[in-house]
Design a protein that fits this description.
The structure is a homodimer. By secondary structure, chain A is of the alpha/beta class. Chain A contains 11 helices and 11 strands.
Chain lengths: ~350, ~350
Amino acid sequence: MNELIKVAVDAMGGDNAPAEIVKGAVEAVQESKKIKVFLVGREEAVRVELAKYTVPEGQIEIVNATEVIETAEPPVAAIRSKKDSSIVKGMKLVKEGACDAFVSAGSSGAVLVGGQVLVGRIKGVERPPLAPLIPTSKGVALLIDCGANVDARASHLLQFARIGSIYMKHVMGVNDPRVGIVNIGAEEEKGNALVKETFPMLKACDDIHFIGSVEARDIPSGVADVIVCEAFVGNVILKMYEGVGSMMLHEVKQGMLSSLRSKIGALLLKPALKKTLKKFDLEQYGGAPLLGLNGLVVKTHGSSKAVEIKNSILQCIAFQEQKINEKIKEQTVREEKA
Amino acid sequence: MNELIKVAVDAMGGDNAPAEIVKGAVEAVQESKKIKVFLVGREEAVRVELAKYTVPEGQIEIVNATEVIETAEPPVAAIRSKKDSSIVKGMKLVKEGACDAFVSAGSSGAVLVGGQVLVGRIKGVERPPLAPLIPTSKGVALLIDCGANVDARASHLLQFARIGSIYMKHVMGVNDPRVGIVNIGAEEEKGNALVKETFPMLKACDDIHFIGSVEARDIPSGVADVIVCEAFVGNVILKMYEGVGSMMLHEVKQGMLSSLRSKIGALLLKPALKKTLKKFDLEQYGGAPLLGLNGLVVKTHGSSKAVEIKNSILQCIAFQEQKINEKIKEQTVREEKA
């Protein structure tokens, strides 16, 4: 039997910890024999939750961590001072090689800072990007970068394009992924200073499939597989996805309830719409990987329920089996030689 | 009788010119006795369209312009070389005081460049922002800036906040409009370099109602009346609105057609949903004003139909009657003294 893929999970992170986190971890090991989950958090609280389920033997272990980093805490100070927090302990397991990956629904800032400071970057990776999958009419696209590094430079964006291509090809199985840069027009001369500087570098890059500028309007229709952008812009894109989506659903629901006729119509439509709307449910895609670290760190929504935790844990399998980090290392070595 | 408000309209601009433009102009003068429209474009083509309607006497006049600036043309060169184009001639009418406003569905670049070069900025306005209204659950919000000036500075954003507040108060009738700055988190210490620099300046500004950072996720729910951002980010927000909205509608429609049951449901729901979705129809709000110029320039979608042209023309009435430009001038004089 192959060695298990070891995933540390922040049992205390997010709005629904520890109950939903533990539930997600249990569902993950029930679904796959390939993984072992280390639930990092307050032992007593985690044990109480875990007692509710029947767990396959040897696939879940508790690692005690007495402290919790709150969302409101300044990340750098929290990482430094709370040595016995679930985030610091979980990341150290990855750093030391005891685990392959760490999944957390906790403080974004602490996860991003901890990833760089505790887990550490792969040599040659300038800025590890946070890269969530977003739904499109044609499937999913990788939005890279989305919150880890504001005010990035052109060389960072170039690296995001390469790392994103590796991820989409080997984890998502997209053959020759199309890379686009977010811009305010389709023409090459359009854009801000950063995009204008990056565009020719991407164009000259022969190891990615660059398709040029992508307007935000065309992202949802699936115009590219890897959407390269600076983190502030990426964050705005991701949040608009969530915001516009939920406002529209709210308004459509209000419309459905506005008359008896529409209520009957809504009842008949329900099964069909449920299937359609599942596609826009970001939870089913799991969390966003923080790429380019010595190990894998996955940040899930603070509001994560069990299903998102489960999917985030399971996505570590393909990442590990496809040796993504080795491929990123080979990439950075090639970059250095060039 | 008061003097008519004179609006020059680019009869050749956009995908549906001149037919829909002329139709929109006719509908506008049929709806309001306060305006006179100058249709600027190829006289013969405009006359043919105009002949289809009965027009109130003295409210529409044709101004011949033999050239057309195409969307693909580099804007600066086009504005310089095509002196007899509808955009250049229409803007000159405003510059010379023969018209109060200019409405165009033509080349965005040419309209933005022409606004600054031909119509000219109000003294003290550093960068005239393009500021469309976007629909929210609570009504509309002004997104400022949205494409006129990428890589803006903090002083520009501060001015956008003030100009946007004037517009929302006096044109849209919002009492004490709430101003938010687009950011990647709610805390004051978050953001990129530009936002970090601008935040304290907005906070110290006692002539606006600053409510702090606004996350993109909360824009659609109507968290602020004036959404301040740099143009690249504003463009992404506007385009995501359009892109996510149209993808979701497409998917919901697909879901509706997926079975006989859902088709019947959709039929019953149609009237209720139509009303709901009208709210997200950006056309009904008219075009985006380019603010801070010596006159008003309104840019409508390239795909504008008659209704958007009509509404864009009609929105010039409130702008003129409320003396928005005089209020902006007073504002810049106060800024200079401060």
